[in-house]
Design brief:
With 359 residues, the chain is mainly alpha-helical. It is 69% helix and 0% strand.
Length: 359
């Protein structure tokens, strides 16, 4: 991907992480957990090509790249928003879209590294099988978001500091389960909720379909993490469980803080004090941020990290009620929505062919 479209120095988007991992070779090919192997079969069958599955001829309006209503903008209704004319609001929508897809891109890049690391470090052969399919998934996601940014938006934001810090911690940790926990459960879970906001609200068909198809893959990735960790965590000592619960809460606070995108407002020369005060005091923004944890909380409960540290942390964040959500049902819905996008595109293509034949 070209670096000329970055809004800030490209050096901020590249860093090296020193880490020591244990590589595990396992030849026990006859031992496999049925659900993980089923997920592996699904992962093989549902591989797709971003070039052919998405319609890259779709035009994107830079004044509203996703085609979403003004109410979805974080600053909507703020003093800053009210002072902007339509041109200024279009510029803000453009930068916000670029920042959001840029963070998706950087997160998927981290996921690609983590999936490869899981293949290397996880001890079970069935998990290695599935993680290998995820490596391909993540490469496709990086390609897809990079292409949208490069061809359609022509502007990219560097990785946010909170996301970079979390990826640093996840990649450096040599314990395979911490890679699952940080990437498969927390980062992927948050991404699913953010993707859904575009998939379900965007009127631009390329932006909507792109996120629907990525979500179809990511739902499997989160399921992979849940299946692997819920078998492993019951065997941990209490100090080991406490350490992981503390990591979960710290990571969730860290990820929540990245959601503001203050770098956009600074880049556009807005009054940062005015923007920050609005974002931190807006009840609507607080509810929006909390909804982004709707995929993480039920997954954390399902894998068994549901001790006092996690429950208190989620209660303080105001997201503990999401524990009642059924993660499996959400995964099924994500798959169905992606298939619906396929059907709609096929129907539109068939209609064009029929009209051409009738001329």
């Amino acid at each position: 991907m070209s670096t000329r479209n970055y809004t800030l120095p490209v050096e901020q988007t590249k860093w090296t992480i020193d880490n020591q991992n244990t590589t595990v070779f396992n030849w026990e090919y006859d031992e496999g957990r049925d659900k993980l192997l089923s997920l592996y079969e699904k992962g093989k069958n549902l591989q797709w090509n971003t070039t052919s599955r998405l319609d890259w001829t779709t035009e994107v309006d830079l004044a509203n790249p996703f085609g979403t209503p003004d109410q979805t903008m974080a600053l909507y209704g703020s003093p800053t928003w009210n002072k902007l004319d339509e041109k200024g609001r279009g510029e803000l929508r453009y930068h916000e879209a670029s920042r959001l897809f840029s963070q998706f891109l950087h997160g998927e890049q981290g996921a690609l590294i983590c999936a490869a690391k899981i293949v290397q470090t996880v001890p079970d052969i069935d998990a290695k099988y599935y993680a290998a399919t995820q490596v391909m998934d993540e490469a496709r996601h990086v390609e897809t978001y990079a292409r949208f940014l490069d061809e359609k938006l022509k502007m990219t934001y560097p990785i946010s500091k909170p996301l970079q810090a979390l990826l640093d911690n996840v990649i450096k940790d040599s314990r395979w389960d911490m890679t699952y926990l940080g990437m498969q459960i927390i980062i992927e879970g948050l991404a699913l909720a953010a993707f859904a906001g575009i998939r379900d609200n965007a009127t631009n068909p390329l932006a909507a379909a792109l996120n629907a198809y990525v979500m179809q893959d990511e739902a499997r990735h989160v399921a992979f993490g849940r299946l692997s960790l819920r078998d492993y965590y019951p065997h941990l000592t209490q100090p080991e469980r406490n350490e992981r619960e503390e990591f979960v809460i710290e990571a969730c606070y860290q990820m929540r803080d990245r959601l503001f995108g203050l770098e956009v407002y600074e880049n556009l020369g807005y009054d940062m004090k005015e923007c920050t005060e609005y974002l931190f005091n807006s009840e609507g923004i607080r509810e929006f941020r909390n909804r982004l944890f709707s995929r993480i909380v039920p997954a954390i409960k399902e894998i068994g990290l549901w001790g006092p540290i996690v429950q208190k942390g989620y209660a303080d964040m105001g997201v503990i009620d999401y524990a009642q959500i059924n993660s499996e049902e959400l995964s099924i819905q994500d798959e169905q929505v992606a298939l619906r996008f396929d059907a709609e595109r096929k129907a539109a293509t068939d209609k064009v062919i029929e009209q051409g034949a009738a001329v």
